[in-house]
Specification:
- The complex is a heterodimer of chains A (286) and B (294).
- Chain A is built from twelve helices and no strands.
- Chain A has 286 residues and is an all-alpha fold.
- Chain A has two domains: 51 residues; 199 residues, MetI-like fold.
- The longest helix of chain B is centred in the N-terminal third of the chain and has 39 residues.
- Classes of the chains: A mainly alpha (286), B mainly alpha (294).
- Chains A and B meet through helix 3, helix 4, helix 5, helix 6 and helix 7 of A and helix 1, helix 2, helix 4, helix 6 and helix 7 of B.
Amino acid sequence: MISSRTFLPTSPAVLARHPAVAAAARRQQTWAAAWLIATLAFTAFSLWWLDIAFGELGSGLAQLGKLVAQMFPPSTGSHLPLLLHAMGETLAIAFLGTLTAAIVAFPVSFLAARNATPGILIHFLVRRCFDTIRGIDVLIWALVFVGVVGLGPFAGILAIAVSDAGTFGKLFSETIETADRKPIEGVLSAGGSNLLAIRFALIPQILPVLLSQVLYYFESNVRSATIIGIVGAGGIGLQLSEQIRTYDFDQVAFVIIMILITVAAIDWMCGKLRFYVIGRTTAPQT
Amino acid sequence: MASGLLILPQEQIERLLANYGRAVARRRRQFYLVVAVLALLAAVAGRYGEVDPPYLLQHISNFTSYFGRILPTLTFTHFAADVADWYWNLSGWLKLLVDTVLIAYLGTLIGTLGAFATAFLTAQNTAPNGSLRFAVKRFHEFCRTVPDIVFALLFVAAFGLGPLPGVLAIGIHSLGALGKLFTEVVENIDMKPVEGVRSTGGNFVETVRFAVLPQVLASFASYALLRFEINVRSGTVIGIVGAGGIGQDLFVAIRKFYYTDVSAILLMIIVTVALFDLISERIRHHLARLESAR
């Protein structure tokens, strides 16, 4: 296999001596060229379709440079207590949203796992339900919930809870499906009911994995919670979008730095917790 | 294998049972402690988050009636006409959906190219320079920590409304996310080919081209596709801040209470996202097979 991926030697004598290698390498080069041309053509089409002119890019970059220059030095604009409160709100939204989503998704995910579901039709329906929820971005859920419960962090909590319930449902049920069958058979053969098998054979196996997934999504939700304020669902995003609209870029810079520090701190903390729970730090595959 | 029930002396059984009881009790205590801490945190967060369950319960009918209202009235007798009425702006929305997907494509392309160009500088085993590695790593971190919608807000302020700020925002955010993933892929390669090329006098570019690239290309493509899926989702919302795509129309429909438009657009978004997830999953599985066959 190595031969087909190496470059084509230019010496004709070498090429003549290894015709199979030369042919494979040439085929590979043709494929690479075809891919390159296709990508370039599609990119050109996209630029044309979206009506993106490179002229705009130059003037926009100059404007962006001006905005970035205005960011220094970052300033609180004497709103520090307000900003800190908004940050607390952001963390609260992420925490309660994740917690609610996990509590809701946990029982439902058993219905969606092939090895624990009471019926294959239920499995299918619940799975499609999760897929539909996940297909809608958290920002859109936030928009919807602002319409239902009004402006404020409560709408943000509900948005994250609903959106993540779909994600957790999928992840949890996939984890349940990978669980080892033997302990379950053990409990069943000792006369335990299905419920007892789930409690004593299934849950002990999957709980650490689920906790690690929840922690990972808590990190991700802290990021989401920083932006849902843009549509009025509470948290630091409201301040951020207001400051950008009023061109207070020194305060924008301060808020962005606050977000970076908070996210880094939460990531670090969750990394420690996850290591404690599961003994490794890798993120689950989504 | 000899079978026979081993009966332990009574005192040993009692000792084992006592140990077992202590172990269970310790786990129980740990569990209750965790629950108590979580409940405390939830109470504090509830105050900060202005959680109001009675309010929610009172207005839960809003939620259900909202979904009732966004659903179109489809009658069996005039089904085609009703659907046509529901999707009155189909061609406009389809154009915006194509916009969304192309924004995601261009953003993913920018992110992939940027991450590709920088990942070899940040991977421990190929980095030519320690301080450069540190700087580029921090740059990646910055790009992926600032949410793409925040970049979009900033770029809309600089470039004006339209798809360009959306493409750039998604591109920069993807650069950060892919930069980290690509770096990890490069760090996990087999170093023997690298040593081989270096020992024959290859420079940095030649080492990357002939020793690293053949090992990482399939994983890179797979991660780029995964990112494309994520970016199609992002592409549906950046319109909310004016950065192009279907999000703008959805935002207007929700804010101005054009109820059936909301469900029409949402359905189109869900179908598009699911479709691209499916396609990209197929290709990624194919790539994974290629990778394991190598």
